[in-house]
Amino acid sequence: MTFLGLSAEILARIQFAFTISFHFIFPAFSIGTAAFLAFLNFLYLWKKDAAYLRLFEYWKTIFAVTFGMGVVSGIVISYQFGTNWAVFSDRAGAVIGPLMGYEVLTAFFLEAGFLGIMLFGRKRVGENLHFVATLMVAIGTLISATWIISANSWMQTPAGYAIAENGQFVPANWWEIIFNPSFPYRLIHTVLAAFLTTAFSVGAVGAWHLLKDKTNRQARIMFSMAMWMAALVTPLQIAAGDAHGINTLEHQPAKIAAMEGHFETQKGAPLILFGIPNDTTETTDYAIEIPKLGSLILTHSLDGEIKGLKEWAKTDRPPALIPFITFRVMVGIGFLMLGLGLWSLWTRWRGKLYDNTWLHRAALVMGPSGFVAVLAGWHTTEVGRQPYTVYGLMRTSESLSNVDAPAVGASLIAFIVVYFVVFGAGIFYMLRLMLRTPGGDDGELEKGPVKAAGIHPGPAQGTPMGGDDGL
Amino acid sequence: MVFDLPFIWAAIIAFAVLAYVVLDGFDLGIGILFPFFPEKHDRDVMTNSVAPVWDGNETWLVLGGGGLMAVFPLAYATIMPALYIPIILMLLGLVFRGVAFEFRWRTERWRPLWDFGFWIGSTVAAFTQGVALGALVQGIKIEGREYAGGWWDWLSLFSLLTGVAVVLGYALLGACWLNLKTSKGLQAKARQLAMASGVGTLAMIGVVSLWTPFINSVYFEHWFGWPTAFFSAFVPLLLAVCAFVLWHGLTTDKHLQPLLAALGLFVLSFVGIGISFYPYIVPGALTINQAAAPDSSLGFLLVGAVVLVPIILAYTGYAYWVFRGKIDPEEGYH
User: Is A90 close to B95, i.e. CB distance below 8 A?
Assistant: First the structure.
């Protein structure tokens, strides 16, 4: 049975790709933002400078909107394994289920339990406990990332398992399962990506307000902090990405071949800058190449051998086009980020960080770059894992539930409609919150920030910090 | 094996589901009751009363679902496809409910839309949870290790009835929560609604309880066969006690007592379901032992659960304690 000519399998794959891509936008932002908020809270308590508190309150509201959307879109994922991928759940549940179970027990409850205090409890618990609550939320987001990346990495590079008579993967060594070969690389790469996503969002908001008023102290602080992150973390991320790529070459060489657009196995392989991989003709058309550089990057040797896709049967290799393109999008953005970071260092050194309007404009344009890079990177690694759910062991086509195509198709349409309406509105509200001038100056230290502290300015509406009536 | 790990895990999953039902029950109940409180001021107070805790409450649903996949993967892999439509509708309902907490403060013009979303999302989530329960009680068709029925098998008069029952039950929890957390006119109205939904809930418990034993002879034997009949005789008796305590609390202006009585109704109904199901996790098809993951999975996660669940309960309790007392409409912490 098909739905609009599509099989249940392809519909379920589209549904998973759609719901998890939409979902990951929110944690990609909230992981970094939670850490940013904890740091702002710390700076406020340490330096007793109300500007940090005002920034905390400003970003807290944006965080609250994001976090809510992350929670509700995440619950969908935890049930979708069962609705659409029941055979996978049955066979792999005993291994990746406990990892997700630990995510719930160590992270989700921690975040949720302290979120209320972080958002609404400042006056009730006092400043120090409020800081602890903020810290707990930030730590929770990082613990959450750790477990879920472990589960994902196990699907990419399975280890520490045995296969039972009934076909189930059963745990043999939990240490090997959790610390499977690709886990450390993927975790570091993902967490740094989340930090950069936040940094470039914060930088864009700071830049926007600096372009309107370069004396705004809050805008200056956030822009400066964001540019430090861009300058310092982007090089680390590029190094982490390189290490991750070498790890992938070792464990998933077919994925690398797809990312690089290599169909033939070569020694001294070129780096294909652009081109269009064609799975049917098994060629990468219109390729622009730099000789030897592909081998140099991946093997750190000019004559290193890089396997091409033809090493694998057509049914055992990933489609090349998507990983090839998304990988280039991610890397391209990475180098743009590095460029902006270095430019900001130079401008800062010359004392013009808050005056260089071209830098501010560039930072504004780069605001969404982290999100694009993160989604591009995940599409690279997930499409590159095909045709398997558990790499080399269980095929995507074997993982599906016994469910009719119309059920999957109808639910897919429902998800698309609801997500665009609801999360579209949410992203619009976030942008509108980012357009608020991060107001307040040190003169109103006593009454200003506390009064404006209500996340949802009921009585305080109309102050610079809140109120959307005019928009 | 000293410990019967599958049995322990069945108890933990049952606890997580019960915690979800009673905690998110009153959150969802507040959404269900939204149409009875058209004033913005009342709606602000109602959402504020759960804003700091709803997220934690909903996390128990993730533990129930995610935990099921970890420790009873076969049950997870067969129940979810069987309940495909109710589960998807529940998830979409929870999306609308969850975002409304923030969104309704972010816009004047579209607030009615998000208020409507809060109501419909809460109601759909509650209804589909009830439907899912009813469908599970009816039993689902399994062949080999897969669900073998169609995607509309869940639909029946019985499952629709259990859907309505859960909506009424959550409305009762929500009304009792408002009776505890609010004052003046809002509280008086909540008390009336608690009375009405309380009568409805008890009627539904009665109908469902009388119907259930005749759906499957196994249930009949569990309820009326020795020795379980000894326990099942107590459940209706205790239900009557809770009903009286609820009625007494509502008519004598007690604030906490009705909520505790309503929670009692839910706990007892849950125990009743447990009596019907045990030792099955999917009635008539899969026992707890058949569906369980290997002991290496159960043991690994149990270590964490034993240490962490008490800690979770402690800090969750602390969060409730921080936001204790009546909601001050002027405090504006939301």
Answer: no
Q: Cα A293–A299–A302 angle (5° rounding)?
A: 45
Distance from CA of A365 to the nearest CA of B (A): 25
Report how far residue A283's alpha carbon sits from residue A304's, in angstroms, rounded to the nearest whole number.
Answer: 21
Task: Please state whether B282 falls in left (phi above 0), alpha (psi between -120 and 50) or beta.
Answer: beta
Distance from CA of A459 to the nearest CA of B (A): 7
Domains of chain B: 5-322 (1.20.1630)
> pTM, whole model, 2 decimals?
0.90
In A, minimum Cα distance to B41 occurs at: A458
Grouping H, G, I as helix, E, B as strand and the rest as coil, residue A183 is helix
Beta bridge partners of A274: A288
Query: What single letter denotes the amino acid at residue A265?
Result: T
Q: Are B316 and B308 in contact (CB under 8 A)?
A: no
DSSP one-letter code for A320: S
B319, A86: Cβ pair inside 8 Å?
Answer: no
For residue A97, give the nearest of B70, B81, B309 by CB distance.
B70
pLDDT string in tens for chain A (471-residue length)? 788 888 989 999 999 999 999 999 999 999 999 999 999 999 999 998 889 999 999 999 999 999 989 989 999 998 999 899 999 999 999 999 999 999 999 999 999 989 989 998 888 889 899 999 999 999 999 999 999 999 999 999 999 999 998 889 999 999 999 999 999 999 999 999 999 999 999 999 999 999 999 888 999 999 999 999 999 999 999 999 999 999 999 999 999 999 999 998 988 889 998 999 988 898 888 888 898 888 888 888 888 888 999 999 999 999 999 999 999 999 999 999 999 999 999 999 999 999 999 999 999 999 999 999 999 999 999 999 999 999 999 999 999 988 888 999 999 999 999 999 999 999 999 999 999 988 876 544 433 333 333 344 333 333 334 333 333
Question: Tokens 């509201």, residue?
Answer: A61
Task: Tell me the pairing of strands A283-290 and A271-278.
Answer: antiparallel
> What are the DSSP E strand ranges found in A133-246?
161-163, 169-171
